[in-house]
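Give me structure tokens for this 414-residue protein.
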Amino acid sequence: MDRTKVYVLGVGFEGRQGLPHGAAGLIERAEVLYGGKRLLSLFPDHPADKVVIGGDIQAAIQAVHARLGKKRQVVLASGDPFFFGIAESLVKELGKQAVEVLPNLSSLQLAFARIKESHSDATFVSLHAKGLRELFAAIPHAKKIGILTDPTNTPQRIASELLERIGPRYDAYVLENLGGANERVTFGELHDIASQTFSPLNVVVLLKKEPGPQEVFPITGIPDKAFFQRTPDKGLITKAEVRAVSLAKLWLKETSVVFDIGAGSGSVGLEAARIARKGMVYAIEKHPEDVEHIKKNRLKLAVANLEIVQGIAPEALEDIPEAPDAVFVGGSGGRMKGILEHVARVLQPFGRVVVNVVTLETLAQTLRALKGIGFQAEVTLIQASKSKELLGLTRLVGLNPVFLVVGWRNAVEP
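Here you go.
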């Protein structure tokens, strides 16, 4: 057993009896054993120093690093150590030459076998690092999702959050204590799962139901009439043509964090969330009626990665836990200066702000405010017309012209 290497051994549902070939001998000769409390408890009489791996994975890796070349070290990991496990971090820290891995079956491999479903077309997520955001990124694209839960993101919470954000579009399996005497498999719709409690040792598999024709929408360019809107002011929605240019000007990436200020029906924020599927959109809106419309539109479009913040900007922005990569201002309520000053404080480097303006007075105010915070600005006037039938002929009807003001820090070239 080489002291210049650390041996990472996958422990399956059978415990000591199901160790990979050669693992038992490595454990027997180990001078230091690392692992979670449950795995270390499988070897109560082992004379090695035992180091519990808890929430601080980096501390455990540093401990391994410090003993490398001095002690014979073994790390016990659940299932496949490379499947959302510690092996990847050890290789990154120590290099490939210092790490040997003997894998076992992962809990999700076993879960799919139990429910007799193929996992070759599944998406797998672990909620231990980024929480539910990893799950939100998989929706609504994945037909099958295997989830490694944690004590905070339980099956009940997962089901409740999905019901609120996307509705009952998935059925769920909860598989508890896999391989144990008290193993249990529960299948049901999300509302069934949300009302139950489960063992802490569990995994979840989601299976998407077949969508109806009314649920199929493009990522962007969603028809205006598809959105729930405030009545009788249905003309106030950001039109699809203006949304398209606004989203392009925001320079969104898959991982972008976006503020949609004065969200109204949420049309811009919802399409932004469909582009930035691995990021998060915060829709800020003060009108309770519009907040309800955003909730309905989020549910209709199955957009999980959009958080609703009810309140008045800029005060409502103070408690948002993330700094934005892009900010869209669809309505300011006469508080443009304060909003842009707050944006200047929190916007990420190379971030952009896009403001939709319909009056010359607000345009001048916006440009002054951007100059006051040290931003450069670009103005684009969108004048679009759409065809309309008239007595068997076709004419064009103009939409209200909209100024798109794009702001960025002076140090950043557009």
